[in-house]
Fold this protein.
Amino acid sequence: MLALRLYRLLGQGLEPFIARKLCPSRRGELPRATLWLHAASVGEAGVAAAIIKALREKNPSLTILLTLQTETGLKKARELLGGEKIALAPLDCPGFVARAFENVRPQVLALIETELWPNLISSARKFGVKILLLNGRLSQKSLKRYLLFKNFWAGLLNHFEAIGVIGPKEAERFLKLGAPEEKIRILGNAKYDLLRERSQKISTGEIKALLDTGRLITFGSVRSGEEKQVVEATRLLLNTFPTLTVALVPRHLSLVKRLKRWLTSYGLPYALWSRKEKAPVIIVDEIGPLLSFYAASYAAFVGGSLIPKGGQNPLEPAAFKRPVIFGPHLTNFPYEAKALKERLGEEIVVRNAQEIFAQFSSFLRDEPKTKALGERAYAVFESFVGASKRYASLLSRFLIPPP
């Protein structure tokens, strides 16, 4: 295949110039393992961790290597899987990848989500290693880019023993890219097994200490472009429910200054979470506490969804039995949004401050109904749990036990 040959030649040409700047694992100096999993960054590290934990239940003595593309992913993987072999991945250059396979000598290479590295895949085939894709994801936007070189990617996907994907839309996209239909399996999203595990360990003590009434509404993962509607909804809520506390959790900390300006313009008193002070509005100015705020909440809004940003995960509040509302632009989580709308009603989709206010008001005025909605939301969350065991079973089929 000409495109692959050109790609390999480019990698070979780069190797002499970059080798000395790389850490050993980036050059392919990796430990021996029967199973090699490869993931991209933080989110994929969580998926890999869930699958590895499920696999450990079946085969506790299996030697596993997990490689990551980023330092942040490496750090997260080590937090989640302290006792496993974890390293930065070799760069996708022919010499580095070949050295990696000579050192690791795996039976199976399992790629997480969309880590389709041409040299890694072709070298695995050359070394007789079985290749699997786990928790496969492929957005419509990414598919359009991949289709520009369909024959190239179709050739690589034919080397896979199995392609496990999170849902039917992904299955359809991999088919369009040329993956053999008989190799595609819809197995769900393994990230929810880790979310359930995390949800059981969440502490809310610090947050509840700041609440006078115990009633907290959280606006989670607010994105730039949503802040005006969110603050307007906050004003309406506090005017009607003056003992309420509202938490604003921006997706990026760069939004904190703008939230401050909008709250000030509305005359709404606020405190920064980092200072642990009481106020009607708490701006969460740290990365990390979002799940704790969802757990402490009466109900929650999930952001990135009032504007076409794709949205954030609506099942995070649901994991704590909290009713959830979100905007119309939840394209990153189509299965989750559909399931929640079916169980909680179409009214959980809100388009502006007035609709956010109306929905939260309904929740606040009818606690028994709100509790029932939270239970339904949790049932939706539970229906998404269990994929990691299915991926572990798939892997086990291709791992030959030692004699």
